[in-house]
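SAMPLE LOG
Freezer: B-3
Tube label: C17
Construct: single chain, 181 aa
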Amino acid sequence: MTPIRSLARVMLSGILVVDGARSLAAPDRLPPPPQPVTDRVAPLLRRAVPGVPTDTKTLIRANGAVQFGAGLLLATGRFTRPVALVLAGTLVPGTIIGHPFWTDADPATRVNNQLHFLKNLGLLGGLLLAAADTEGKPGLRWRASHRIGHSQRSVRRAARTARRQARTAVRSAATARRLPG
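STRUCTURE (predicted):
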């Protein structure tokens, strides 16, 4: 991993680690109550995983724990691509719940929430870039297509060799029939 990538990942994950730790410690600190969103998510969670706690504080703490843990993994360079996708997924509900600038009547609050919304949108873009970053190594899709192309060339080469050997065998058999004996 290059020093630039390492530094960028630490910088990108810093805010998520701090925000995750704060959400774990004090889930009530969020300015607007996230109750309407968690009320929509709770039935889906109950269907998917029966018995899981779906109260608002628990969901906020779970989101914070994921952000904290995944942020640390991203900062240390472990499982960076899947962790970046997980972090992107945790960022979306917090952005929608925490910064709904479209509902603000006060212009100053609207501008503040809009700036935070756009900041989170920038973080989301950075996380998507981190999820797509192969660190200069070929991606899985390229390696698979390259391997398929290599296999196709090998099969064609083997078929040409087999045809050549078959022609040689036919000639040898014809020569052998002409020989007395």
